User: What shape does this take?
Amino acid sequence: MIRVLTPLPVLLPLLGAAAALLVGGRHPRMQRTLSVAVLTAVLGVSIALLLLADSEGAAALSVGGWPVPLGVVLVVDRLSALMLVVAAAVALGVLVFAVGQGAADGDAETPISIFHPTFLVLIAGVANAFLAGDLFNLYVGFEILLTASYVLLTLGGSAARIRAGITYIIVSLLSSVLFLAAIALVYAATGTVNMAQLAGRLAELPEGTQLLLQSMLLIAFCIKAAVFPLSAWLPDSYPTAPAPVTAVFAGLLTKVGVYAVIRTQTLLFPGGALDEVLMWAALATMVVGILGAVAQTDVRRILSFTLVSHIGYMVFGISLASTAGLAGAIFYVVHHIAIQTTLFLVAGLIERQGGSTSVNRLGGLATASPLLAVLYFVPAMNLAGIPPFSGFIGKLGLLEAGVADGGWLPIVLVAGGAVTSLLTLLAISRVWSRAFWRPPTQSPADDTSDAAAADAGPDLSPEPLPSPVEEQEPAGEKQPAGAALGDRAEARRAAWQRHTAVATASTPATDGLGNDERPGRPLRPLPRVMVASTAAMVVVTVGLTALAGPLYGIADRAAGDLRDRGPYISSVFGDDGAVP
Amino acid sequence: MTPTVVLPVVIGVLYAAGVYLLLDRSLTRVLLGFLLLGNATNLLLLSTGGPSGLAPILGYAEPEEMSDPLPQALVLTAIVITFGIAAFVLAIIYRSWRLVRQEVIEVDEEDRRVARRSGTDADEIDPDDLAPEDRAAMHADTFAADNEVEATLARHYAGIASDDVDLPPTDRHLK
Assistant: This one.
């Protein structure tokens, strides 16, 4: 049973992508239904896989019936099944959000036919990376998801996205080349790329060779996971993409890197040779990342930096190399995928409601949309690790594991983790107090319409043509030097009216400055589907708190499997453990 | 079936040249660098199969005379991936060229802005006190800058379509 289901999380999205491409732009409705149906099926299969893997243990499928060390092997164990479930769940939530956004922006008239197929290919790549039983298949999985992500990140091809995409693409290419070179060296040293077989053979190599291979793999994965100092690419490339794309990238893609690091440190190189290096990297990632978040003024960039920062917690758990540490890391990965995706979706809603993502421009959102305030507040508190949310449980598990380790460095990391948690609270409560509670009269109202135009990037609709420069004066000259104070007050009053108009959702908002609203993005009530999918994601994150007991149990057992290595290897080579 | 010294030397030279090109600001050179790195890695992968032998076809050669077929299969996959991504990067470079008439990696304005900031906590700043360009976070100003470049170009080269790549005016020409 489990072997039948194993290839489906890869196959279904790939076939779905092909079908979605075929129906394409002519039947956008059918395309949307198709991709939602495919992802729902993937979610169902993943849940079944998790239940089976948890009750029956790991299983391996040799694709094409090749004898085991030769062919491509897909392996499901508790860790990969758990990752699949979370990935499918957030992907589904994000896809529904994107459908809602597309409907709200009038995609029915000008549909982008490549978004859905590319999104499905991305999910296929993620699933392939989680299931891969050999290093080269892991590489192929990475390449599938990266290539899809290049397309998604540069969707629409506006200047800002192209620039962000170039950074992202070049960094990803470099890490891929490094990964491929590492695979070549691993093969040269051991004569295999099958991970279960490598687990035995790598241990026989000289220590220096092992260290070289391990560090090459770790560097390649740490670039993908955005571990400091290999994280600088992330805050530059994620924020410009459309909101659903940023959400799924932030949630999933870095965690695929973390997953690969977990496999490297437990299955391939369990000796713990680089644990201390990883601990320092984890500390630096947490502290530097969150200091970056505190310095930012844009909601998306703040979230991107907290994303980098919280990767540090997971690396911390991995580097402890204890069952408790790994269990904490796995639980934290699950929690963080859901929470970060949700927050980026909320950021998309904030932008839609407030016309900007800069906390310097936003204001009065709590009045304008109390529901949005709740949707932001709950996951934000969860991210900061306020009890009783799952973020608190995950952090507590990690800090306990750090204290239990007993060394001085883990204690330093525990302190660093606590400080990071507090600074996270500072960064997100700044957004809370300024964007949601500051009266709009305090925000610089004179450039709100300008701001809406300038932030026009993140949506799925094709970019509007830039207006001629003659009309779009630089913001500095917007207010002539001798502008009467009355103008300004007038503008603020207009902004206030607009916010209240949005809040009551009865009258269409007027600008009050004589400028037309940017076409296609009038300030109006948030589209229901977008709000509903975001609310569903918030419910999922709260559900992680309610289900924390069973979930932590699975994470604990998965960590036990990882430390043992036996279940993984015997699932590939049979119970007699005859590793060729 | 003799090992050769040519392959390691070629791989080394390709890696060196690839890294050198990758460090350039010009995107075309970055792409060339990536291609060289990809080829170097493919050769490295190929050379892990050991000394060269006969083609690994059953019935054509004895198994002990054959080359290792696995690295060849891996290399084929890697070549296809490199090829596809190179095509995509080329498209991106062309798009970048059409948009801003330059294909170099731009300075990140947001980093500069954060670096310029004083030690004051952001909460203590009244946005109204800030210079207008500092209020804009993100890359809000780049849109204006791009528009500006496009508009200036349109004035300077009135008769030329904006995606005409024969005449390469960069922003150096504009000042």
